[in-house]
Amino acid sequence: MMIQGKQRQLLLLLCESSQPLTAKQLSEQLGCSIRTVKNYVAQLNCMNEVALITSSRQGYLAMQPAAQDALAKSAATQQIPQTFRDRAFYLIRQILIHHAPLDVFDLAEQLFISYATLKADIAKMNQMFAPSDVKMVVRRHHLQVEGTEKNKRRLVARLMMEEAPHHFIDRSLLTQNFNQADVEQLEKIIKEALVQSRLSLNDDALLNLMLHLLIMIQSIQHHQTLVSRESYSTWLDKEDATVITRIIGRLEQAFSVSLNKHEREEIHMLFHANMDRLPFRPREKLQDVVGQQISDAMQVVFSEVKRVFGIELKNEWFTLPFGLHLKKMYSRAMQGSGLNSPLTDTLQEEFPVVFELALFVSNCLNKALRISISAGERAYLALHLGAELDRQKQLAEKIQTVIFTPHYTRLSEQLYQNLSSQFGRDLNIVATVNDFSEIGKYDAELLITTAPQPITSAYQTVTISPFMTAREKRHIMDVIEQQQARNQRDFLDQYFDIYFDENSFFRFSSSMQQHEVIAEMCTRLERQGLVPTSFRTHVFEREAAASTAFGEVAIPHSVYMEAKQTTFSIGLAKDPISWGTHHVRLVILTAISQRDQHRFMRLYDALITMFGDEKMVNTLSGFETFGQFKDLVKTKMNL
Fold this sequence. Notes:
There is one protein chain. By secondary structure, this protein is α/β, with parallel strands linked by helices. It contains 26 helices and 13 strands. It has a five-stranded mixed sheet. A four-stranded parallel sheet has the order 6-5-7-8, with helices on one face. It has a two-stranded antiparallel sheet with strand order 1-2. A hairpin with a 2-residue loop joins strand 1 (53-56) and strand 2. Helix 2 crosses helix 3. The longest helix has 30 residues, at 470-499.
């Protein structure tokens, strides 16, 4: 039984509601006619041996547990994990998020794999999860995860971040959900106003701000205004506030809307929340901005998300904008209305991790606020949550940095701004502290301090003057490069057992030609079903454009992310072969899947860093087995 699209949304709405919903209520939430709702109900009941939905004068009601079972079976049919990584995430999600009992024999049947393949997956997962100090074990034919609760949550958080989309909020996603002309007009208004001011927004902050403003404009255009706020405040100083006031005037003119004083203040707050400022500055209490009820509901959401998923949503960048959105969503629910989103139909298929989190948060808010959250409103929750996952994911790839200054003065903010502007691409400054004991609260890799501190192995330390000289800047850059090299080794170590495999390892004769080596390696990947036949053609096209060789190493690859599963195929030769103008002994054929495209440059840089050492290549060229190759690489990564 396949339940898809709006039929699935309708059944989800009924399952989440403790009261009957009328055809009119369902049509409004689904964005379709009442007649279509009735057709959906009839079709759903025909699909199942037992009726899934009953009707009465009060409306439609889902029959439990039949309706939930039908949804679960349909989802399993539509989304059978195909690769090792898909299965790993599926198993962890079922055990640690849904707490589902998993019989290993039933599981093998559900996944359409043999019991031997499942056991091999479990062994491989235990290698991959070893840094998290958790282990998957089989007890009485049931799969379980052993480890402390803290480590289990860390593992869930890590996998959620792994599977989260890269650059979730971009212009294409905004234009999918809003009128393209409106998106372009809004961006133009903001950029033109800021260019002459001292205010600045990075790209992610700009897109996040635009998302909130577009939702606000859409609500006002549908006659849903913000009618109350419990307190007021001056969020920006006079000069900055004047710039935002001009922007508000242009918005009203461009979109033919009239903003009341509550909405105007909200725009000031949104700009304040997204500006490039010192992190963790004290703000007015959240309940003073969004109200006690919304504030309490948010604390429940933050606590539950951290408990179940291990993800920390309670932070300076997310809390205020998300609270403002919930305030408006609650107001719409109280008025019996809601927003629709084109993302609703594709959210689960295209962004499964974000959908999982949005559904969980939606259920938490449903209970805490006692409101019904439509599929459209859930899609907008997903936009906020997806953007936050993406932000955390991108920041995690930077060097986690803490600034220490003995006295908290205006100088701290100036130093933060200076370091952010010059090293923002490489550093994620998580905090500025003036008490040395506070440094331990943060998982820092680098401490930049204006006062000498004792050397520690926990993080690197750089001491600078408050005004940072040119020599100190060069020293910071040197330390950044050292830390990046260390992080690249750790990154490759983390993914080695996923991307490198004995089946993709072979030795080639020194009498072979460059094209013969590439052809043989492509054939091996094709036989394993890891790449399409077009991959071979694209690898040769890329090589013809410019050689991928450096030193005694070549890394041929396709310019397209077309692999079914990311894989690195290793070819070794005792004596070098001609490769364009180079002579190589190590060939790493790189096949990247669409889902891993955001990791391509990190992986490519990590490979160059790892195998750019001539002595290492010389040692590797004498190896006969994958085990020898793996042992040396692992040893080098752990130095």
